[in-house]
Write a structure and sequence with these properties.
The chain has 269 residues and is α/β, with parallel strands linked by helices. The protein is built from twelve helices and eight strands. It has one domain: TIM Barrel (Alpha-Beta Barrel). The structure holds zinc ion.
């Protein structure tokens, strides 16, 4: 199925995580460093607004034209990111592994999850991890109006700021799909949208730590941003366990390749 067909399918049936093909390996592009993040994001935003929602779901387009938006960073660094938490059943396990490995990561949190477990959100931040906005509810943004989008992102930003004591600066839209209203709101809230270059697909049927690691490893490259989930609130029950099991393998692979790992705040060259 083509990316275009996938995007169309997502617009018709947004309830579950879309089944797009794995993304291409990150290829750090010189313009990301030469031109500067702000200029590129401005250009990306303008292009997305003109092209309409859904363009950021097109892997080849976003990776080639919008490297920072795609999560492309320094060639010797891999950003580790987690979506959909904080989840009391899952997130502490990820925090333990990261602490054992002395690694920091970026957690894109849902405001609705933060409101249920504000202490855990604070714990994530206190452990030195970066916290970004994933929305308040896990909804497909192109189907939401401007006001609903603005209210959702603002509410999520405020919940996270209240719980963690610091105002988030990064934003990852649910399903990795932006809308014009989301871009406008993100800019108003000073949130920088960042997607990913490799994901584990731990939410797929039959996923295991081995399959998640193999999926990630196929797309793993310096400059890339890895997406895993520290919650199953939008996916099959217990799917986060496959991500948790894959995490040490992923970190070992990066170490063997001589790649630094860390949060997105350390990702730019
Ligand atoms: Zn999500």
């Amino acid at each position: 199925m083509t990316d275009l067909a996938n995007a169309a399918q997502r617009r018709r049936r947004p309830a579950r995580r879309p089944s797009a093909r794995p993304l291409a390996p990150a290829r750090p592009l010189a313009p990301a460093r030469a031109v500067g993040l702000g200029v590129l994001l401005a250009a990306a935003g303008a292009a997305v607004v003109q092209a309409g929602p859904g363009i950021t779901a097109l892997r080849s387009v976003r990776t080639a034209l919008f490297p920072p938006l795609s999560g492309c960073g320094a060639a010797d660094h891999v950003a580790i990111t987690f979506d959909d938490g904080p989840d009391p059943a899952a997130t502490p396990h990820f925090l333990n592994v990261l602490a054992e490995q002395q690694v920091h990561a970026t957690f894109f949190m849902l405001g609705s999850m933060v409101d249920r477990a504000p202490g855990l959100a604070a714990e994530v931040a206190a452990a030195g991890h970066e916290v970004g906005v994933h929305g308040f509810d896990h909804r497909y943004l192109p189907l939401r109006g401007p006001r609903a989008t603005r209210d959702d992102l603002t509410r999520a930003r405020d919940s996270i700021a209240t719980a963690t004591g610091s105002v988030p600066r990064l934003f990852r839209p649910p399903y990795g799909v932006l809308s014009t209203a989301a871009l406008v709101t993100a800019r108003r809230l000073d949130l920088t949208p960042v997607l990913w270059t490799a994901r584990g697909r731990e939410w797929a049927a039959g996923a295991s730590p081995g399959s998640v690691y193999a999926t990630l490893a196929a797309d793993l490259a310096g400059g890339g941003t890895v997406l895993l989930h520290d919650s199953d609130c939008t996916s099959p029950a217990g799917s986060w366990r496959a991500a948790l099991g894959a995490l040490p393998m992923l970190l070992e692979d990066c170490a063997q390749q001589g790649l630094r790992v860390g949060p997105l705040r350390e990702h730019q060259a």
